[in-house]
Design brief:
two-stranded antiparallel sheet; 10 strands; Inosine-uridine Nucleoside N-ribohydrolase, Chain A; 8-stranded mixed β-sheet; alpha/beta
């Protein structure tokens, strides 16, 4: 039985109706310690197939608590029924239960690590099938934002991004999807690819799961794309599982994954993408931008050296162990609520 907090049941129509208030006021947060303006973020995930998605959303909420980010929406590229409720569980725990949630109606639908624990924590969204269509929600939210202001961070497949590019004018905006992206999106951060190149027929998972979408976005995105692709050797989650309070759902998701894979830590691919999306290069990374990415429909990628383009990919500046400590400290930070 789902445990719900004391508010109205979440439905797709209610979510869309409530957007006006969310978009006009943003999410509550404290002033950023750096004094910088909070980064408006849309978080897009394939949550369900791995556990670093949950960790990535958790640290995004903590950085929002600190005034570093403003979460406009959370989207699932995975249309499995459990995935959007898992997002709702995390949003609710971190004190943002009304954050809009969209779900793909066309993407793949695998799910392994969340359904065993989702019913144990407060949330309202029963099934991803009840969530608004992600592409329509993207259009509504982007249309309401200032020009060139929004950062989209995709830590899974590029399914929703391809759908957004293909979308046409609607009641939210007279612009095509490509025009709307060009007008409103400052930067797309994609956790995808193997850099500088992936071997033939060995494309990186996030590109390979929807190769046609990755090819479309890499080829046609009308703005800046930063590919992260880092994190294999940045291991986190062990301290989270050992030290976090029992009412925190994120370590429960990690425990499910750890038990299934017989491991005690997990690579931090998605968390690094979120860290960059909010804090930029900082002392963590440097970027390679002399050239461009070519994406194949099999999910492979190739970096073509040359003049600087709207593509770049990250490389480490901070030692991986130090970066892991930064991330684990964020994971263990309690929510403001």
């Amino acid at each position: 039985m789902t445990i719900g907090h004391q508010c109205l049941r979440f439905t797709a129509s209610m979510a869309v109706a409530g957007l006006v208030a969310v978009l006009s006021t943003g999410c509550s947060s404290v002033e950023s310690p750096s004094g910088r303006q909070a980064v408006p973020i849309i978080f897009d995930t394939d949550i369900g197939t791995d556990v670093d998605d949950a960790g990535a959303l958790a640290i995004l909420h903590i950085m929002a608590d600190r005034g570093e980010a403003r979460i406009l929406a959370t989207m699932s590229a995975n249309q499995n029924r459990w995935c959007a409720p898992a997002i709702d569980v995390i949003n609710t725990y971190y004190g943002r239960p009304d954050t809009p949630i969209g779900s793909s109606k066309t993407g793949p639908s695998p799910e392994e690590w969340y359904h065993d624990s989702v019913p144990d924590y407060p949330h309202d969204l029963v099934s991803g099938h009840d969530a608004p269509d992600a592409v329509a929600l993207y259009r509504k939210i982007l249309a309401a934002q200032p020009d060139r202001s929004v950062t989209i961070v995709v830590v899974g497949w590029l399914t929703n991004m391809a759908g957004l590019l293909k979308s046409g004018p609607d009641s939210s905006s007279p612009l095509s999807g490509s025009e709307l992206v060009e007008a409103k999106v400052k930067e797309l951060v994609s956790m995808g690819g193997r850099w500088p190149n992936s071997a033939k027929n060995e494309g990186e998972y996030n590109f390979r799961m929807d190769g046609a979408a990755a090819h479309k976005v890499i080829s046609d995105w009308p703005g800046k794309i930063v590919f992260t692709g880092l994190g294999r050797d940045v291991m986190t989650g062990g301290r989270l599982v050992a030290e976090a309070p029992k009412d925190n759902p994120v370590p429960a998701f990690y425990r499910n994954f750890f038990k299934g894979h017989k491991v005690s830590e997990r690579s931090s691919w998605d968390l690094i993408a979120v860290l960059y999306a909010v804090r930029g290069l900082s002392d963590y990374f440097t970027a390679v931008s002399e050239g461009k990415c070519v994406g194949r429909e099999d999910g492979g990628n190739e970096w073509i050296p040359g003049a600087a383009s709207n593509h770049s990919y990250l490389v480490y500046r901070m030692p991986q162990a130090e970066l892991a400590a930064v991330i684990e400290d964020l994971l263990l930070t309690p929510p403001l609520r």
